[in-house]
Specification:
This protein is α+β, with helices and mostly antiparallel strands and 188 residues long. It is built from five helices and six strands, in the order ααααββαββββ. A six-stranded mixed beta sheet has the order 2-1-6-5-4-3, with helices on one face.
């Protein structure tokens, strides 16, 4: 019995040590704070997984100079939602940057508004059990609706159905690097 408990404790310690040693880029305060108003979720945005995914991409897309729909975006998430952005730092080292919704908005608003940004889902994989769903969504981004593709990402959203609507609890966004092509299972 003691060795079983000891082994469990060692495994738990190892898991926690690994989880906390993930390379993380420190969250830097954004140079700009974006005020995000409160609003009621649109039923069409949260009543189905398709609605959530459509809204998820609609809110960040738009032409240069047009404010993004951050209040609508916020209605998709639980108050404690976390975003993890997986990318490379300036030296090419992979990093995982964890953000709150407000930090995500502050961090991305200036760039998507300044240059124009349109993100579109091109493939989706859904794993669902009862009131939980994990959606793996591949997207492509452009500066204009019909412009050249400037990037891809694979976004993983964990969602919860509360009996009335879907709530996004966690988002991981993996930016696709040119030296790591999109695997077949994530392509249309």
């Amino acid at each position: 019995m003691r060795s079983s408990c000891h082994r469990s404790a060692v495994l738990l310690f190892t898991f926690l040590l690994t989880a906390f040693s993930v390379a993380q880029e420190p969250t830097k305060p954004s140079s700009r704070h974006v005020e995000v108003a409160s609003m009621t979720a649109r039923p069409e945005d949260v009543s189905t997984l398709d609605g959530v995914m459509k809204a998820y991409y609609d809110v960040i897309s738009g032409p240069a100079g047009q404010p993004r729909q951050w209040a609508r975006d916020r209605t998709l998430y639980t108050p404690e939602v976390s975003f993890v952005i997986i990318s490379d730092d300036a030296d090419g080292t992979p990093v995982a940057k964890q953000l709150t919704h407000q930090e995500f908005v502050d961090d991305s608003d200036a760039e998507v508004v300044k240059g124009g940004f349109y993100e579109k889902e091109i493939h989706r994989i859904v794993h669902r059990y009862d009131n939980w769903a994990s959606v793996v969504s591949t997207s492509q981004s452009r500066r204009t609706p019909d412009g050249p593709v400037i990037g891809h990402s694979i976004d993983n959203l964990d969602l919860f159905w509360d009996g009335h609507r879907w709530w996004v609890m966690h988002v991981t966004i993996a930016e696709i690097r040119p030296d790591h092509p999109l695997p077949k299972e994530f392509q249309p």
